[in-house]
Amino acid sequence: MDISGLTEELRVNDANLSRSTFEDVNLSGSLFKNTRLTTVRFHDVDLTNTKLTNVNLTQVEIQDCTLTGMKINGILVEELIALYKSRHT
Known about the structure:
The chain is low in regular secondary structure. It has one helix at 77-87, and strands at residues 71-72, 75-76. It has one domain (1-64).
């Protein structure tokens, strides 16, 4: 299905969109609830001001990303990385 150029709100419920491609798409203000995103890849994605709550991050890998202001359970990730590096160098 091709919905190129769609500019109105899209509601998707009880659907299987596995193997879909989202390219040059604005999903700002969207809600993902009870959604499976296993084995998904994000490339050149802006997650500024995104909040993840009750999310399973098992085996998630983050590479070459800007982490400014990113917190995990209220702790700045940059500080965690600096502390780790200071103890492992």
